[in-house]
Amino acid sequence: MQTRRKIRRYTLEERKYIYSCPLEQQFVPVFKCGEAVVFRHLIRSELSEDYDRVLDVARALAIEKQGPVYILPEINAHEKELRASLGLSADNGRTPDIMMDIGEFVDIKSPASEDTVSSNACKAYKQGGVVCITDHSTTLSIRDIDQYARWVLDSQGYHFDVAYFYIEKVLYKRTKD
Predict the structure, then answer these.
(1) Which neighbouring-strand residues pair with 170?
(2) Who contacts 144 (Cβ-Cβ below 8 Å, separation ≥6)?
(3) By C-alpha distance, which of 71, 87, 79 is closest to 14?
(4) What is the DSSP letter of 124?
(5) pTM (whole model) above 0.85
(6) Alpha-carbon gap, residue 57 to 134, rounded angstroms
(7) What are the extents of the domains in the chain?
(8) Which of 40, 48, 107, 165 could form a disulfide with 124 if both were Cys (CB 3.0 to 4.6 A apart)?
(9) pLDDT tens per residue across span 153-174
(10) What is the 3-state secondary structure (H, E, C) of 51-112?
């Protein structure tokens, strides 16, 4: 019988110490394929509920980009200096899942049904990230990807010109044009 390990919770002092380190020391590599590298923040637990789906998308983005991608921790609203150092809004306490470059973020959403694709994209936008819709929680069809993209990119609450979709372990990028 397998026992589930508990997620380590960092004290405020431990978080402050980690955040006081240079950014490159706050991340550890978790995937490498040529120039494609995924780094995980020290505070982001590999045991968290959504870690595997975030890692799946981060790998795909790193391979597409042929460069580094960073898995971010949950950053509290009051941790303004860290938020600012990553290019996150100091006013918004929500943190996207992935940073591609300073100030360039992706938030991963796994809607419970096709009907919630657009509302999930709007939530990602409120978190400051371009959305990546995955099929981790429901079946999404590759043949319907252009329809999903229209729902997202035409939504009143989503104001980016790009959206990603990770369906059947393949990354797709759609743009508004």
Answers:
(1) 167
(2) 114
(3) 79
(4) H
(5) yes
(6) 8
(7) 12-175
(8) 107
(9) 999 999 999 999 999 999 999 9
(10) HHHHHHHHHHHHHHHCCEEEECCCCCCCCHHHHHHHCCCCCCCCCCCEEEECCEEEEEECCC
